[in-house]
Design brief:
Elements (H helix, E strand, L loop, with lengths): L11 H7 L28 H14 L4 H7 L5 E3 L6 H7 L8 H28 L4 H29 L22 H15 L20 H14 L3 H13 L9 H4 L10 E5 L24 E2 L12 E3 L1 H10 L3 H6 E3 L1 H8 L20 E2 L7 E3 L22 E5 H13 L9 H11 L10 H12 L5 H8 L24 H6 L6
Antiparallel strand pairs: 1-4, 2-8, 3-6, 5-7
Helix pairs in contact: 1-2, 2-5, 2-6, 5-6, 6-7, 6-8, 7-8, 8-9, 9-14, 14-15, 14-16
């Protein structure tokens, strides 16, 4: 048996620490990330695994600003005010600066990771030149996994910027020769086509069923990204087909406890389709692989576990979202999504319609963490909160050891239901059945004859504060009036962020 097959149930994040290749620092400039394989022994096929792990590491290593830029412009969330990133606050009000470092960081780092993905795929091809049939087949699977990660990154950057580059290799000099940018529609079609190529080569299982790379990409991850790309294209039959195949597999289930889904008990649950994985390796000190969750946390709290660090207060659920949830009679989804302060509760109660609030709306979470008043915001995001009593003893960083969910089964069900209401057909289940599965977990009554508007509202309730899903739904559905709230005015020309000035300087096509 080959050496790379002997690895028994490794964690991807553990491999990041063990693999020298996977632990290289992210490159500052995409054009620098060309052939770094000098001296590599391509006859040793175990290196294919390290190449794949390196691509995962690049994909998981998101700067703290990247998810915030992708997600802050929706009506579900506000940027924290009075912070040291005023241009980020202005972005939330649809006032953009192409000179803002965060705008450039998102572009630069995603493309660095896309180029890293190409480099990894090219390395695996070189290993395959010396491999057995078994090793070639495994290499093809790894390449397919990396194609899926690359596809998700291109999907997200196109959502944010619209027309963007589609790198086809690790040679970034080729991008200088591009005379016209691929349109957003062309990017989404490319992503969909890439998923079609990857699907036959990927394991037919849930990510948490994988024993070689726990939580890694599977066929269903690729199907989910194909559905997302086709949703942007408004090709709803393709959405129904892809999501219907995931549903029909019978492999996925909604995690029964919505509150714990976003915390330690929900890590790599049967609902997970694509997560950014992080770990403290069950130890209180030493190696860890982590995301910086502090921007989401309250600036001031009294944790149940003394010494647990607070956050920065950069990201808060909107009053509009909270009132929407109260009007629907939401309980567990509202409690899970929002960390309340006394100041925020008092501000809500100045509206006579919300003077009498349910008892779960308190500044003390069910885990005993007290969210104190702070100047930057009225609330904090509960979906990015890890209770201090779930921190591994010895760890104090806000959210340490918490995974970051990108795609989950609930979204698949709601995408499927919307596709049917947008004219697609499928016999897997009805739109009512799909929506009611999601509502049942939330303790909401079943609907009959569900409408498109009801599905859009269900997505708002279920997916708020998750990667801008609400914002991009409003763009796709052209419901721009929803984004004009609390003094903001949204117009269609504000859909995309501007290309960063440092990238325009490097690639003149961006300025055309």
């Amino acid at each position: 048996m080959k050496r790379f097959i002997k690895i028994s149930k490794p964690s991807l994040v553990l491999l990041f620490v063990l693999a020298v290749w996977g632990c290289t620092d992210k490159l500052d400039e995409p054009e620098l990330n060309n052939n770094f394989a000098g001296g590599t022994d391509f006859t040793d096929s175990s290196g294919m695994l390290l190449s794949a792990v390196g691509a995962y590491e690049a994909f998981y290593s998101r700067g703290w600003e990247q998810p915030l830029i992708i997600s802050v412009r929706g009506d579900d969330v506000n940027s924290g005010g009075l912070g040291d990133q005023p241009e980020f606050t202005e972005m939330d009000k649809f006032n953009y600066s192409k000179d803002h470092w965060m705008v450039n960081s998102l572009w630069e780092n995603i493309y660095a990771d896309v180029i890293s993905a190409h480099t990894a795929m090219e390395q695996i091809v070189r290993y395959q030149e010396f491999g057995s049939d078994e090793e070639i087949a495994l290499g093809n699977q790894y390449i397919a996994e990396i194609q899926v990660l690359r596809g998700m990154m291109l999907f997200q950057i196109s959502q944010v910027y619209g027309d963007v580059f589609i790198p086809e290799s690790s040679d970034t000099e080729l991008l200088l020769e591009v005379e016209s940018l691929p349109t957003k529609a062309e990017v989404m079609q490319h992503v969909s086509d890439q998923m079609d190529l990857a699907i036959p080569l990927l394991p037919e299982m849930r990510p948490n069923e994988r024993t070689d790379l726990k939580g890694g990409v599977t066929k269903y991850t690729a199907l989910a990204i194909k559905a997302l790309a086709n949703q942007e294209l408004e090709n709803y039959q393709a959405v129904a087909d892809a999501t219907g195949e995931i549903i029909a597999s019978g492999k996925f289930n909604l995690y029964p406890d919505f509150y714990e889904l976003f915390k330690t008990p929900g890590k790599l649950s049967d609902e997970s389709i694509l997560d950014l994985q992080y770990s403290d390796f069950n130890q209180g000190e030493g190696d860890r692989f982590a995301h910086l969750y502090a921007p989401y946390g309250p600036l001031n709290w009294t944790p149940a576990v003394e010494g647990a660090a607070s956050g920065w207060g950069f990201y808060e659920p909107s009053f509009k979202f909270i009132k929407f949830m109260l009007d629907r009679g939401e309980t567990v989804r509202l409690e899970t999504s929002v960390l309340f302060t006394d100041r925020g509760i008092a501000e809500l109660q100045t509206d006579p319609a919300y003077s009498d609030l349910p008892s779960f709306m308190t500044n003390v979470t069910r885990d005993g963490d007290k969210i104190n008043d702070f100047s930057r915001g009225y609330f904090s995001s509960g979906k990015h909160y890890l209770p201090s009593n779930q921190l591994i003893a010895g760890r104090t960083a806000y959210g340490s050891n918490k995974n970051y969910t990108l795609i989950r089964y609930a979204e698949i069900l709601l995408m499927y239901a919307e596709a049917l209401k947008q004219g697609a057909s499928s016999s897997v289940m009805t739109a009512d059945q799909a929506v009611n599965l999601v509502r049942e977990r939330a303790g909401m009554p079943a609907l009959s004859g569900v409408t498109l508007d009801q599905i859009v509202d269900e997505k708002f309730a279920e997916l708020a504060m998750e990667w801008g899903k609400r914002y991009y739904d409003m763009l796709r559905l052209k419901r721009y009036d929803e984004l004009s709230y609390d003094g903001r005015t949204f117009t269609e020309d504000k859909k995309y962020l501007p290309y960063p000035q440092p990238q325009i300087d490097q690639f003149p096509v961006l300025g055309n």
